[in-house]
Amino acid sequence: MATDTETHGQHVTPLKIYLGVGAALFVLTVITVAVSYIDLGPFNLVVAMGIATVKAALVALVFMHLYYDDKLYLTIFIMALLMLSLFIVITLFDTLRRGDLYEEAASPLRQEALIYQQDTTETGAHTTEDSTADTTGTAVHDTTRDTTQETGQETPAGSSH
Amino acid sequence: MTEPSGRPAHLAHHFSDTEQQRESAKLGMWIFLLTEILLFGGLFAFYVFYRAWNPDIFYNAHVHLNTTLGAVNTIVLITSSVTVALAIRSMQLGKRRKTITFLATTVALAGVFLIIKYFEYSHKFHLGQLPGQYYSYAGIEGTNPHIFFSVYFTMTGLHALHVIGGMVVIGWMLYRTIRNDFSAEYYTPIENAGLYWHLVDVIWIYLFPLLYLIG
């Protein structure tokens, strides 16, 4: 057994490092709270996330031993973060541009397109009718959604006064 | 501790030595932590999309969170991360009594975190600052302020469930340490419980500024 301990000899982090990292995490917490009271515009978010990432890195590298251990574990951790950021960034391409889509539905890209010309002149054609119904349908749906949100907001605000 | 065959009692028959067993257990733990990151990742995505859509609501509603309690909870959780790290270190050095003290402190600090969280939650329940249809608070300007509280309660709620889970796991480790299951040669379960606890801490490190300190 004694020889086992020798050969396996896991890295024992010095006490000073644990306490030092703990102190650094306290100080960073105080700094991030203090900075939140100063108005830096959009940089408040950048600073807060930067400090949080430094804190998370300290915990992961020292407390979770990623700095000392086999780098396979660090790779798994980073892979998880990469997958997560891919997931969020790619979905943002959709969520941030949805407003544009509603605008385009409301105002046709090519006003002079044949399909819109027929709308005004003849109402009989089946295909035209369908497409009109579609666009107006979504438009109506949109406005109802907006008004419900509007009233939803108004009710609690009104009751407060 | 040693069986007649010369194998230590903690070594499962399908591993050739302690080191291989330890590495396998740790690899499994890290893969589990990866799934945990992705689980919380869905909620972080929820946060990002809804904050991008409703920046004003997030700003107006976050003012109603108690920054002092949030900051105290951050300090409590960081301290508990230090104590669990020290518990593992003590076991590496064979100091079982110190491990017991540090693990008990960690469980106690997790309890303090939950008590503070309870006071925050009950205050919000009282005011009606609740998610979705249960929202009945009237003091926040802007459309649909309940969105912020949906985000707040799902994120801190899932985190609080993890804190409860961590208390159970670390409490179990405490029991096993008292039962004398571990030694300087074998302490992998405490190490893995510690990894889980540190991840819970890392998630809170992000939740605190994202929810309480919106600039």
Oligomeric state: heterodimer
Rg of chain A, alpha carbons = 29 Å
What would the average pLDDT of chain B be, to the nearest integer?
92
Helix coverage percent of chain B: over 70%
Kindly describe this structure.
The complex is a heterodimer of chains A (161) and B (215). Chain A starts with a helix and ends with a helix. Chain A has helices at 2-8, 15-36, 43-63, 71-95, 98-106, 114-121, 126-160. Mean pLDDT of chain A is 74; it is low at 1-8 and 124-161. Chain A is mainly α and 161 residues long. In chain A, helix 2 (15-36) runs antiparallel to helix 3. Chain A has 2 domains: 1-65; 99-155. By secondary structure, chain B is mostly helical. Chain B has one domain (37-212): Up-down Bundle (Four Helix Bundle (Hemerythrin (Met), subunit A)), CATH 1.20.120. In chain B, 74% of the residues lie in helices and 0% in strands. Chain B has helices at 18-53, 55-62, 67-92, 96-127, 146-178, 188-212. In chain B, helix 1 (18-53) runs antiparallel to helix 5. Classes of the chains: A mainly alpha (161), B mainly alpha (215). At the A-B interface, helix 1, helix 2, helix 3, helix 4 and helix 7 of A face helix 1, helix 3 and helix 6 of B.
